[in-house]
Predict the 3D structure of the following.
Amino acid sequence: MSRIIGIDLGTTNSCAAVVEGLDQKVKLIPYKGGEYTIPSIYAVDDKGNELVGHEAKRQWQLNPKNTIYGSKRLMGKSYDPDTVRRIHDYFFYEVHEATGTDEVMVGIADKRLALPQVASKILQKIQGVASDYLQAPIDRAVVTVPAYFNDRQRQAVKEAGAIVGLNILRIINEPTAAALAFGVGRGMSTETIAIFDLGGGTFDMSIIEIRDRVFEVIATGGDIFLGGVDFDNRLIDWVLESFETHHPGVDLRSDPIAMQRIKDLAERSKIDLTQRKECAFNIPFITMTPDGLPLDIDLKLTREILEGRTADLVGRTIDTCRRVCADADIDPKSLDHVLLVGGMTRMPAVQAAVTGFFGQPPSKQVNPDEAVAIGAAMFAYSLEDDSNLRVQLLDVIPMAIGIANASGQLHEIFERNEAVPNLKRLTFTTSVNNQKDLQMRIYQGDDEHVASNNELLGEFTFSGIRLAEAGTVKVEVEFNLSQDGILSMSAHDKDTGAEMEKSVALGVRKYE
Ligand SMILES: Nc1ncnc2c1ncn2[C@@H]1O[C@H](COP(=O)(O)OP(=O)(O)OP(=O)(O)O)[C@@H](O)[C@H]1O
Ligand SMILES: [Mg+2]
């Protein structure tokens, strides 16, 4: 049987690795050109050709409307105007609400794709490259997700795999995977570490205790709308404001090609400013005046400007760290190591903030771009029959899961940071005579009070309740949280044991 590979499906870059060969070492899977990461970008060119990765990135300046980038942020999200606006300020592909469900769809080349379909294009590319590299078809993988992904977002990733025949055996959290890359083989002593993962789209922070081969997550927190693209967007705003002062009334926002060129240079300049204190920000012929004269962008950008424009974003990462340390009941200064993961952690201001908060410089022992894929590959290897690596991951759910009660409040079933896997049982009693079914809306999120401020996981109906007087039938509902952080439910009559039939309204659980 072919190997199980580990995949880090990132917002901006994806990376895959595998344990193989006689030496059973972790190897990163190289793409054409020898690179170990590919941009998580899917595009369709004007001839209808599908492009993934570097090829898609190469043409994005000219084809911004049909280039889908950063879409991991929409995976498993219900359509809500606020999210769509946040995407639309800086991305040029179309975003729609699906008919019949509350899912988001993206428009590309006259087609509409659900987000798992977009992710499946990237997974398929990785699968193809891995198959060529290993000279065997690849149909099983361990895929990482942000620790802060909820149940629906995790389901969406599984669905993406299923679309291309890739069985995602396990979903593991990105910081937990990075901890594995760091911690396997470190010996018997117990160490408590923090993983600070600031990638292209998301921020995660976990505190993990490592005891030999046991990795126990104590607490986790994060934000799926905080990452490198937000830093880029702040630079884009600075560029547009500076341009506007020189050329009042010339609106670049409505020109997708101009915006894409600015975006491209904004990201490159942000990266440059890791090494340098200033750089030129020049784009010739960005647009024309109404009387046909070409206009250029010709600015000087400094590290100080970048830091000034993004200080609040860095501040938000530290706020999360503070909350996670409080949840874990741990003094941030007492941790044994702090690991940095994700490309954005190369920014000096991020490193300085982390060093200040934890009172120690971060460890340089893992590669921030590769640690997650390496950890996923190690975990994948631990699932192989012939593996001599045994690891135990004890993870938690990042946000509470609960039921909306009659007054719209959230009745928590699982609290945030509760261990997975997990099982809870609740007993409900019929409230009217001859009640036939029991309905419940399940939510997951940070708002402990108002249920509907959280993500709706589904509206479930259990039917087939035995006909009887109100208050006599007791229905026991089991809430089963898998190791992947995905909820499944069943219900039975507590007295007779008869199973109830379950159905899901709102269509959000079609893959259950
Ligand atoms: N030297 C650098 N300085 C600043 N930022 C950098 C540097 N190198 C890469 N980045 C930024 O890091 C981000 C990409 O990081 P990474 O590849 O870890 O993200 P990802 O895994 O795709 O995203 P996520 O984990 O959020 O899903 C991009 O925004 C990129 O601009
Ligand atoms: Mg990442």
Remarks:
- The mean pLDDT is 94.
- The two ends are 27 Å apart (CA to CA).
